[in-house]
Amino acid sequence: METLIVLDMLKEIWQKWGEEKRKIAPRIKHLIDSAKKTEKPVIHVCHIYRLSDKLYWKSHKKHVLVGTIGAEIIDLLKPETEENIVRKRGISGFYGSDLEHTLRGMEADTLILTGTATNLSVLHTAVDAFQRYFRVIVVEDCTVGYPGKEEHEWALRHLRGYPFDIPVLTSDEIIKRFYKAGEEGEKI
Protein backbone atom coordinates (compact mmCIF):
# COMPACT_ATOMS: atom_id res chain seq x y z
CA MET A 1 0.00 0.00 0.00
CA GLU A 2 1.26 3.44 -0.91
CA THR A 3 1.40 5.86 2.03
CA LEU A 4 1.96 9.60 1.84
CA ILE A 5 4.43 10.86 4.46
CA VAL A 6 4.53 14.57 5.35
CA LEU A 7 7.75 15.44 7.22
CA ASP A 8 8.27 18.36 9.59
CA MET A 9 5.79 20.88 8.22
CA LEU A 10 5.84 22.61 11.60
CA LYS A 11 5.03 26.22 12.46
CA GLU A 12 8.44 27.07 13.92
CA ILE A 13 10.33 25.65 10.95
CA TRP A 14 7.87 27.32 8.61
CA GLN A 15 8.45 30.76 10.16
CA LYS A 16 12.25 30.59 10.04
CA TRP A 17 12.92 29.28 6.55
CA GLY A 18 12.98 31.18 3.27
CA GLU A 19 10.33 31.81 0.65
CA GLU A 20 10.96 28.56 -1.28
CA LYS A 21 9.21 26.48 1.39
CA ARG A 22 5.99 28.46 1.03
CA LYS A 23 5.58 27.04 -2.48
CA ILE A 24 5.48 23.44 -1.31
CA ALA A 25 2.63 23.68 1.23
CA PRO A 26 -0.20 24.13 -1.33
CA ARG A 27 1.25 21.28 -3.41
CA ILE A 28 1.42 19.03 -0.34
CA LYS A 29 -2.16 19.99 0.52
CA HIS A 30 -3.23 18.97 -2.99
CA LEU A 31 -1.40 15.64 -2.57
CA ILE A 32 -3.07 15.06 0.81
CA ASP A 33 -6.50 15.75 -0.69
CA SER A 34 -5.78 13.40 -3.61
CA ALA A 35 -4.50 10.71 -1.25
CA LYS A 36 -7.69 10.92 0.81
CA LYS A 37 -9.91 10.76 -2.29
CA THR A 38 -8.08 7.65 -3.48
CA GLU A 39 -8.01 6.09 0.00
CA LYS A 40 -4.25 6.35 0.48
CA PRO A 41 -3.14 6.85 4.09
CA VAL A 42 -1.41 10.08 5.09
CA ILE A 43 1.02 10.21 8.02
CA HIS A 44 2.50 13.42 9.41
CA VAL A 45 5.91 12.84 10.96
CA CYS A 46 6.91 15.66 13.30
CA HIS A 47 10.26 16.50 14.83
CA ILE A 48 9.88 17.49 18.48
CA TYR A 49 12.26 17.92 21.35
CA ARG A 50 11.92 18.06 25.11
CA LEU A 51 13.74 20.35 27.51
CA SER A 52 15.34 17.21 28.95
CA ASP A 53 17.22 16.56 25.66
CA LYS A 54 20.37 18.08 27.16
CA LEU A 55 22.87 16.38 24.84
CA TYR A 56 21.05 17.81 21.82
CA TRP A 57 20.98 21.31 23.28
CA LYS A 58 24.78 21.33 23.65
CA SER A 59 25.12 21.59 19.88
CA HIS A 60 21.76 23.08 18.80
CA LYS A 61 19.61 25.93 19.99
CA LYS A 62 16.24 25.04 21.45
CA HIS A 63 13.49 24.72 18.89
CA VAL A 64 10.30 22.71 18.14
CA LEU A 65 9.76 21.99 21.81
CA VAL A 66 6.92 19.65 22.73
CA GLY A 67 3.84 21.54 23.84
CA THR A 68 4.73 24.78 22.05
CA ILE A 69 2.92 26.38 19.11
CA GLY A 70 6.14 26.02 17.09
CA ALA A 71 5.89 22.22 17.29
CA GLU A 72 2.40 22.20 15.74
CA ILE A 73 1.74 21.32 12.09
CA ILE A 74 1.03 24.39 9.95
CA ASP A 75 -2.67 25.22 9.71
CA LEU A 76 -2.96 24.50 5.96
CA LEU A 77 -1.84 20.88 6.46
CA LYS A 78 -3.12 20.17 9.96
CA PRO A 79 -4.88 16.79 10.06
CA GLU A 80 -8.41 16.52 11.41
CA THR A 81 -7.31 14.12 14.16
CA GLU A 82 -4.08 13.25 15.96
CA GLU A 83 -4.39 9.64 14.84
CA ASN A 84 -1.97 9.90 11.93
CA ILE A 85 0.70 12.02 13.60
CA VAL A 86 3.97 10.32 14.48
CA ARG A 87 6.44 12.15 16.72
CA LYS A 88 10.15 11.63 16.12
CA ARG A 89 13.15 12.55 18.25
CA GLY A 90 15.81 12.86 15.54
CA ILE A 91 16.34 13.74 11.91
CA SER A 92 15.03 10.49 10.43
CA GLY A 93 11.31 9.76 10.71
CA PHE A 94 12.27 6.37 12.10
CA TYR A 95 14.51 7.63 14.91
CA GLY A 96 12.85 7.62 18.32
CA SER A 97 9.40 7.05 16.83
CA ASP A 98 6.89 4.29 16.19
CA LEU A 99 6.80 5.04 12.44
CA GLU A 100 7.96 1.58 11.36
CA HIS A 101 5.46 -0.14 13.67
CA THR A 102 2.68 2.11 12.35
CA LEU A 103 3.59 1.42 8.72
CA ARG A 104 3.90 -2.35 9.21
CA GLY A 105 0.52 -2.39 10.98
CA MET A 106 -1.03 -0.63 7.97
CA GLU A 107 0.74 -3.03 5.59
CA ALA A 108 2.41 -0.09 3.87
CA ASP A 109 5.06 -1.04 1.35
CA THR A 110 5.68 2.20 -0.55
CA LEU A 111 6.42 5.53 1.14
CA ILE A 112 5.90 8.78 -0.74
CA LEU A 113 7.97 11.45 1.02
CA THR A 114 7.20 15.18 1.17
CA GLY A 115 8.11 18.05 3.48
CA THR A 116 11.18 19.62 5.00
CA ALA A 117 14.06 19.39 4.52
CA THR A 118 15.21 17.44 1.48
CA ASN A 119 18.79 17.26 2.75
CA LEU A 120 17.78 16.48 6.33
CA SER A 121 14.57 14.65 7.31
CA VAL A 122 13.61 13.60 3.79
CA LEU A 123 17.06 12.21 2.96
CA HIS A 124 17.53 10.38 6.25
CA THR A 125 13.97 9.02 6.33
CA ALA A 126 14.33 7.82 2.72
CA VAL A 127 17.60 6.01 3.46
CA ASP A 128 16.23 4.47 6.66
CA ALA A 129 13.08 3.34 4.82
CA PHE A 130 15.19 1.82 2.03
CA GLN A 131 17.20 -0.11 4.63
CA ARG A 132 13.93 -1.39 6.11
CA TYR A 133 12.85 -2.73 2.68
CA PHE A 134 10.18 -0.15 1.95
CA ARG A 135 9.88 1.19 -1.58
CA VAL A 136 10.49 4.95 -1.47
CA ILE A 137 9.50 7.82 -3.74
CA VAL A 138 10.49 11.44 -3.10
CA VAL A 139 8.23 14.21 -4.41
CA GLU A 140 10.58 16.80 -5.89
CA ASP A 141 8.21 19.79 -5.89
CA CYS A 142 6.86 18.97 -2.40
CA THR A 143 10.24 19.06 -0.67
CA VAL A 144 12.62 21.92 0.02
CA GLY A 145 16.25 21.98 1.10
CA TYR A 146 17.77 23.85 3.99
CA PRO A 147 19.05 26.44 3.71
CA GLY A 148 18.24 26.42 -0.01
CA LYS A 149 18.02 25.01 -3.50
CA GLU A 150 21.64 23.79 -3.65
CA GLU A 151 21.06 21.46 -0.68
CA HIS A 152 17.75 20.30 -2.20
CA GLU A 153 19.45 19.35 -5.49
CA TRP A 154 22.36 17.67 -3.70
CA ALA A 155 20.01 15.44 -1.68
CA LEU A 156 17.95 14.47 -4.75
CA ARG A 157 21.13 13.52 -6.66
CA HIS A 158 22.25 11.44 -3.70
CA LEU A 159 18.91 9.60 -3.47
CA ARG A 160 18.73 8.95 -7.22
CA GLY A 161 22.23 7.44 -7.23
CA TYR A 162 23.72 4.13 -6.25
CA PRO A 163 22.90 2.26 -4.06
CA PHE A 164 19.47 3.78 -3.43
CA ASP A 165 18.15 4.52 -6.93
CA ILE A 166 15.08 6.13 -5.34
CA PRO A 167 12.57 7.57 -7.83
CA VAL A 168 12.05 11.32 -7.66
CA LEU A 169 8.68 12.34 -9.12
CA THR A 170 6.57 15.50 -9.28
CA SER A 171 3.32 15.97 -7.38
CA ASP A 172 1.38 15.76 -10.68
CA GLU A 173 2.98 12.38 -11.41
CA ILE A 174 2.06 11.13 -7.92
CA ILE A 175 -1.55 12.31 -8.25
CA LYS A 176 -1.88 10.53 -11.62
CA ARG A 177 -0.39 7.44 -9.98
CA PHE A 178 -2.95 7.61 -7.13
CA TYR A 179 -5.92 7.90 -9.49
CA LYS A 180 -4.68 5.34 -11.99
CA ALA A 181 -4.09 2.79 -9.22
CA GLY A 182 -7.62 3.42 -7.93
CA GLU A 183 -9.19 2.93 -11.38
CA GLU A 184 -7.25 -0.22 -12.20
CA GLY A 185 -7.39 -1.67 -8.71
CA GLU A 186 -3.69 -2.50 -8.78
CA LYS A 187 -0.32 -1.02 -7.96
CA ILE A 188 1.54 0.86 -10.61
Features:
188 residues, alpha/beta, 6-stranded parallel beta sheet, 7 helices, 6 strands
Description:
Helix 2 (20-37) packs parallel to helix 7 and helix 5 (118-131) packs parallel to helix 6. This protein is α/β, with parallel strands linked by helices and 188 residues long. It has helices at residues 11-16, 20-37, 54-59, 99-106, 118-131, 149-160, 171-184; strands at 2-7, 42-47, 85-88, 110-116, 135-144, 168-169. It has a single domain (2-184), classed as Rossmann fold, CATH 3.40.50. The protein has a six-stranded parallel sheet with strand order 3-2-1-4-5-6.
Protein topology:
Blueprint: E1 2-7, H1 11-16, H2 20-37, E2 42-47, H3 54-59, E3 85-88, H4 99-106, E4 110-116, H5 118-131, E5 135-144, H6 149-160, E6 168-169, H7 171-184
Helix pairs in contact: 2-7, 5-6
CATH topology: Rossmann fold
- SSE-based structural type: alpha/beta
Beta-strand percentage range: 15-25%
User: Which CATH-level-2 architecture?
Assistant: 3-Layer(aba) Sandwich
What's the rounded overall pLDDT mean?
89
**C-alpha Rg (nearest Å):** 16 Å
Number of domains: 1
Walk across the major sheet and give the strand order.
3-2-1-4-5-6
What is the CATH superfamily?
Answer: Isochorismatase-like
Classified by CATH, the class is Alpha Beta
How is the main sheet built?
A: 6 strands, parallel
Number of strands: 6
Q: Topology as H/E string?
A: EHHEHEHEHEHEH
Gap from first CA to last CA: 11 Å
Number of helical runs?
Answer: 7
User: Roughly how much helix do the residues carry, as a percent range?
Assistant: 40-55%
Give me the oligomer status: single chain
Gross morphology is globular
Q: What are the low-pLDDT stretches, counting only 5+ consecutive residues below 50? A: none
